[in-house]
Amino acid sequence: MADNKKIALIALRGDETVGISPLGPLYLATALKKNGFIPKIIYKKESEVGEIEGEIEDFKPDLIGMSVFTGYLNKKYVDLSRALHDRGYLIVWGNAHASLLPEQVLKEEFIDFVVIGEGEETLVELVKNLGHKESYKNIASLGFKDEAGKIIINQRRNFGDMDQYLIDWSLINVEDYIVPYFSNRYKRTLAVVTSRGCPFNCQFCYNLVFNNRRWRAHSAEKLIANLKPVIEKHKIEAIRFLDDNFFVNKERAFAIARGLGLPYFADSRVEYVDEKFVAGLKETKCQEIMFGFESGSDRILTEVVKKGTTVKDIVKAVTLLKDSGTMASGSIVFGLPSETEAEYKETMELIIKLLAINNNLAFTCGWFLPYPGTGLYEKAKELGFRPPEKLEDWDQFDRWRNDYKMEWVSWNYGQAVKYSRQVVHLLALAYKRNIPFLKTILKKRVEHLNYSWPIDIYLFAKLRNIYLFSGQKNFLTRLIKRAIVFIIKLKQK
After folding, report:
1. According to the model, what pLDDT value does residue 158 have?
2. Which label site among 22, 88, 173, 374 has the fewest CB atoms less than 10 Å from its CB?
3. Within 10 Å of residue 48's Cβ, how many Cβ atoms?
4. Is 10 helix (H, G, I), strand (E, B) or coil?
5. Backbone angles phi, psi at 308, to 5 degrees
6. CATH architecture of the domain formed by 178-411
7. Could you give the CA distance from residue 33 to residue 193 in angstroms, rounded to a whole number?
């Protein structure tokens, strides 16, 4: 039996993030509890960071873990780590950023260790050996500083068996993470993961380094047995599978969907889509499937991203999903290294083309974020990108900001960064609700790449947000919603 060491696992999220439990820390906490240690997950919104130091002082852990992804919120983690280290606590960073830049992380005097890659076995070994500094060099996937302050990065370990660490859901209050989804069709939706990694070669993706292009998964049988009690206890109505690629093994994926028997959301790849695949989605009640469209330029897809797909594959997938009952969603990455303004326009035009084919379609649009160690990180550096030298400076890389700066892009992208997402979301609404005048206005803007005097964009974006997201909070909201419905019906006539 272990010696009851206590470990706090801290993860932060944006204030607007809802419905996603701290899945990474949950796996780590499960492994720690299984080995006799006492874990505590502290999962806070950005605006709640000030509460953490008090919780740490009450818990008095032997080790504090920080789950840090590259980009947004990095400075919050830096400030928090420094403050807690100053109080005498040992600090370990894990997740993507520590795995991609372990030396940069360990240069900071307030970070004692890094865990590289998946952390269950490494963290357990570290906790078992805390204080026995001579043992640190024998812990695979651990980074640390020796007595002389020299940074030591140990050899990475092989990936573990995910079934050894099926989540212990008692470690969190599941009710805190059950939310409506699918346009509020299902009131009680739970997000889960069933696999890790992705075997493909997309040159912008952190998986290239973090997971070494390796995919591994829970067995269908054990995952179903793990989730069924949670679903029954909490009356879950739908599932969001947050795997990077749920359908790497289609037989396994469909077995999980059938075994759980609930409507679901999942990620896939466009080349998987054929008539048989669409029939499987329909049979298993798939409500929404997300693809990485990435770009409307075949040069970008094949030569830059090395996606392994083409625009033709995207069009085929969207066409086959039309009238299937499954909504298609596409992830778009603007501002990839060497992308031209003409190729940006190709992507916007592809979005319009896809909506004309299948109006049951949505998009997630962001700008390229250079993950260290990836092929496009190196390409961005060749084109002028200067990686931050300090941890906190990675905070500026928030690919959703409307003033995002990209040293690797040569064309004047300022207006595109500010308005592209709004225009795409409004296009999706215009096609879904068949609003001809809104289609015409937005198509003209894309045709001429003209985002000046964006009064229409601003107005319709505000109305869209009220219509889709405000609920029935007050009389004015209800009145605006009724007016929008009336306009839609009028235009349809």
Report:
1. 86
2. 88
3. 13
4. strand
5. 85, 10
6. Alpha-Beta Barrel (3.20)
7. 20
Assign 311 to helix, strand or coil: helix
**In the block, residue with structure tokens 């651990």:** 142
**Residue 225 vs residues 23, 228, 255: alpha-carbon distances, Å:** 18, 6, 13
Name the β-bridge partners of 267.
290
Mean pLDDT of residues grouped by 10 in the chain (493 residues)? 84 88 95 97 95 97 95 91 97 93 96 95 97 95 95 91 94 95 89 93 86 89 98 98 96 98 97 97 97 97 97 98 96 97 97 96 94 93 94 85 90 93 92 90 92 83 61 51 57 53
Per-residue pLDDT at 119: 94
Token pair recorded at residue 210:
């973090």
Q: Is 178-411 the same fold as 6-153? A: no
Q: Specify the pLDDT at position 471.
A: 47
In order of 32, 367, 404, the CA distances from 452 in angstroms are: 55, 20, 18
Contact assessment for residue 352 and residue 446, using Cβ atoms and an 8 Å cutoff: yes
CB 10 within 8 A of CB 46: no
CA distance 350 to 305: 17
* Structural contact between residues 358 and 391, judged by C-beta atoms closer than 8 angstroms: no
Tokens of 303: 């030569």
| Joined tokens for residue 412 | 């004047």
Q: Which helix (H) or strand (E) holds 11?
A: strand 6-13
Task: Using alpha carbons, select from 303, 299, 304 the residue that is nearest to residue 376.
Answer: 304
Please name the amino acid found at residue 391.
Answer: L
DSSP 456-482: HHHHHHHHHHHHHHS-S-SHHHHHHHH
The amino acid occupying position 74 is N
Helix (H, G, I), strand (E, B) or coil at 6: strand
In 10 A of CB 228, how many CB atoms? 14
CATH (one of 3.30.70.260, 3.40.50.280, 2.30.180.10, 3.30.830.10) for 6-153: 3.40.50.280
For strand 195-196 and strand 216-217, is the pairing parallel, antiparallel, or unpaired? Answer: antiparallel
Which residues does 391 contact at the CB level (< 8 Å), separation at least 6?
A: 74, 77, 78, 97, 104, 105, 108
Distance CA 187, CA 302 (A): 40
**Per-domain residue ranges for the chain?**
6-153, 178-411
